[in-house]
């Protein structure tokens, strides 16, 4: 880890993301159909409400109780049932395959960028785009220096890009990433309509 991430605007949530690889992985998993800040603030809400924050505890929590953690206002996610299930599935996979150690996904046996991407793609809830963005986040802000990570992350790994959460370092870059995402969505709408 190089320094503190600045994704959520909440110093406590950003500190958890910066210091706990599981929090960062769960934040990335939650980053869909809600603002980035909401998604990445989710791990802190989970920790505060559960009273613990490790893959084994989350995986073993009763699904009903875990959904309630997600529903409590302010909600962890706008889709509490499905996202609580996905977080528990991710944590179960981490326990089963990685001894509950999220960082092992990108550190165990010194993998290169393509291998890390393959490992991320094997995790529940991580498709190609999410895995590439997370790999770029690891490389750009989390101190990952694996050979070939930029190439494996595709356009998200490009130096100076403003495409994703991997590029957010302050409020200004957050605004730039948000504007870039809106421009991509608008272009897709125009292409679909035209």
Detailed description of the structure:
The chain is an all-alpha fold. It has one domain: Endonuclease III, domain 1, CATH 1.10.340. 63% of the residues lie in helices and 0% in strands. The chain is built from 11 helices and no strands. It has helices spanning 11-19, 21-30, 36-50, 55-60, 63-71, 80-98, 104-107, 113-121, 128-141, 149-152, 171-193. It is globular and about 45 Å long.
Distance between the termini: 45 Å
Number of domains: 1
Cα shape: globular
> Average pLDDT across residues?
95
Radius of gyration: 16 Å
Low-confidence stretches: none
Question: Quick one: CATH class?
Answer: Mainly Alpha
Sheet bearing the most strands, described?
none
- H and E string: HHHHHHHHHHH
> Any idea what the CATH architecture is?
Orthogonal Bundle
Stated plainly, the CATH topology is called Endonuclease III, domain 1
Number of strands: 0
- CATH superfamily, by name, is Hypothetical protein, domain 2
Strand content: under 5%
């Amino acid at each position: 880890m190089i320094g503190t991430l600045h994704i959520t605007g909440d110093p406590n949530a950003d500190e958890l993301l910066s210091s706990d690889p599981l929090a960062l992985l769960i934040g990335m998993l939650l980053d869909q159909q809600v603002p980035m800040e909401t998604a990445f603030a989710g791990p802190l809400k989970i920790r505060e409400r559960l009273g613990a924050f490790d893959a084994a505890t989350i995986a073993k929590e009763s699904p009903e109780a875990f959904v309630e953690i997600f529903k409590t206002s302010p909600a962890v996610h706008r889709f509490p049932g499905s996202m609580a299930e996905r977080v528990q599935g991710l944590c179960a996979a981490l326990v089963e395959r990685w001894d509950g150690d999220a960082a092992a996904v990108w550190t165990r046996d010194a993998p290169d960028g393509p291998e890390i991407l393959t490992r991320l793609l094997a995790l529940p809830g991580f498709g190609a785009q999410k895995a590439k963005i997370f790999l770029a986040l690891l490389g750009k802000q989390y101190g990952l220096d694996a050979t070939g990570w930029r190439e494996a992350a595709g356009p998200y790994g490009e130096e100076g890009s403003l495409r994703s959460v991997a590029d957010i370092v302050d409020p200004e870059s957050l605004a730039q990433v948000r504007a870039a995402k809106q421009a991509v969505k608008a272009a897709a709408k125009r292409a679909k309509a035209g």
